[in-house]
Design a protein that fits this description.
seven-stranded parallel β-sheet; binds NADP nicotinamide-adenine-dinucleotide phosphate; alpha/beta; globular; single chain
C-alpha cells in the first residue's frame, strides 16, 4: 500500500522504464498504471491498471477526469529508433500526440507533469549534451521527442522534463534494453560487434526510477539530465559487461559505427552531461560496473 494520498498516473507502465517506476513508486503514491497493448509482468494487485491508447484525445481527457491525478508521469513512447524512421505516423502518435493530448487535458488544472525525454534530441557532434545545448535531432524519433518537449514548454508551467539515455534493465526485459544483444550473443558464445566510436552514459532503470522519485518528491521543475556516471564507448561498455557477467571478452570485436549501417542516423557523442544533476540528488548515479553488478545479482 502507498504511504501517500497523492494520486499519480503512470503512462507506459508496461515498458522497460515504466515497470521499474511502477515497482519503485507503488509504496509512495496512489498509482494508476496506464498500458497500451503490452501487459505488465506479474502486475501487483494493489495497483489500478487502465488500458488506453493515449494518442486518442478522448481517452486522455476521460482518464484525467476520472482519476483526478496530482501527478502525471509520462513514460509512454515508441522507442524503436529505426521503426520511427519508416513508420512516421506511429512515431508522431506515440511520441508527440500522447503529450499534446495530456497538455490539452491538463491546461487549466494544477497537475505536476513529468515527461521522460531523450539524449536523441541532440546531434551529439562532439560532447555529451548539456541541459542548455540547442536540440538538433538527427532522426525522426528524436524529432518527435523534441516536438513533445516544445509542446510542454510552450503551453504548460508545472512541468519537469527529464532527459535520459541508453537504458539498462535485466536481460531480455524491454526491446531497447542495451544489454539484450550483448547478453544473448555472448551467452551462446557468438562474437559481438561493438562500436568504438559511439558514446553514451548508460543508466540502469532502477537507478533512474530512484532518481525520478527523489526529483518528484523534491518538486523539481524545468529540465534535468539523468544518465549514468560513466561516459563510455559501446566497446568499453561491452567489455565491462562481459567481465561482470563472466563471458569471454575476446568475443567482443571493436568496429566503427559506419560498418553498422542502420535506417536511422544516431548521434556519435550521445549521452548527457550529468555534472549539474549530481549536485541536486542524494541518490548516487551508478557507474556502468555498479549497475551491471546489481543487474547480475537480480537475475541470480
Ligand atoms: N530505451 C532507451 O534506451 C531510452 C533512451 C532514452 C530515453 N528513453 C525514453 O524513456 C522512456 C521509456 O522508454 P522505454 O525504453 O521504457 O520504452 P518501452 O519499453 O518501449 O515502453 C514504452 C511504453 O509506452 C507505451 N505506449 C506507446 N504508445 C502508446 C500509446 N499511444 N498509448 C499508451 N501507451 C503507449 C508502450 O505500449 P505498447 O508497446 O503496448 O504500445 C510501451 O509499453 C521513453 O520516453 C523514451 O523516449 C528511452
Amino acid at each position: 500500500m502507498s504511504d501517500s494520498s497523492e494520486k499519480l498516473i503512470l503512462t507506459g507502465a508496461a515498458g522497460l522504464l515504466g515497470q521499474a517506476i511502477l515497482n519503485k513508486f507503488r509504496s509512495h503514491y496512489d498509482l494508476v498504471a496506464v498500458i497500451n497493448k503490452t501487459e505488465i509482468d506479474d502486475p501487483p494487485e494493489d495497483i489500478e491498471i487502465v488500458q488506453a491508447d493515449l494518442s486518442v484525445k478522448k481517452a486522455v481527457s476521460e482518464l484525467i477526469d476520472k482519476h483526478k491525478p496530482d501527478i502525471i508521469l509520462n513514460a509512454a513512447a515508441w522507442v524503436d529508433v529505426d521503426g520511427c524512421e519508416s513508420d512516421r505516423k506511429r512515431a508522431l502518435k506515440s511520441n508527440f500526440s500522447v503529450v499534446e493530448n495530456i497538455v490539452n487535458a491538463i491546461k487549466d488544472k494544477r497537475i505536476y507533469l513529468v515527461q521522460i525525454s531523450t539524449d536523441y534530441i541532440f546531434n551529439g557532434v562532439d560532447h555529451p549534451a548539456n541541459v542548455d545545448d540547442s536540440p538538433a535531432p538527427l532522426n525522426y524519433y528524436g524529432r518527435t521527442k523534441f516536438m513533445a518537449e516544445e509542446c510542454i514548454v510552450d503551453n504548460y508551467a508545472r512541468y519537469l522534463i527529464t532527459r535520459t539515455c541508453a537504458l539498462l534493465g535485466s536481460p531480455n526485459r524491454g526491446q531497447t534494453n542495451l544489454i539484450n544483444y550483448f547478453y544473448n550473443s555472448l551467452k551462446e558464445g557468438k562474437e559481438v560487434q561493438a562500436p568504438e566510436d559511439i558514446y553514451a552514459n548508460p543508466i540502469w532503470v532502477e537507478n533512474l526510477s530512484e532518481l525520478l522519485l527523489e526529483a518528484i518528491q523534491k518538486g523539481y521543475k524545468g529540465m534535468l539530465h539523468l544518465g549514468g556516471k560513466d561516459y563510455l564507448s559501446r566497446y568499453e561498455f561491452a567489455r565491462i559487461f562481459a567481465d561482470v557477467f563472466g563471458f569471454d571478452e575476446s568475443l567482443i570485436k571493436p568496429v566503427a559505427a559506419i560498418h553498422q549501417r542502420r535506417p536511422a542516423k544516431r548521434p556519435q557523442y550521445a549521452g548527457l552531461n550529468v555534472n549539474q544533476t549530481r549536485d541536486k540528488f542524494e541518490t548516487p548515479l551508478l557507474t556502468a560496473r555498479e549497475a551491471l553488478t546489481e543487474i547480475r545479482k537480480n537475475i541470480e
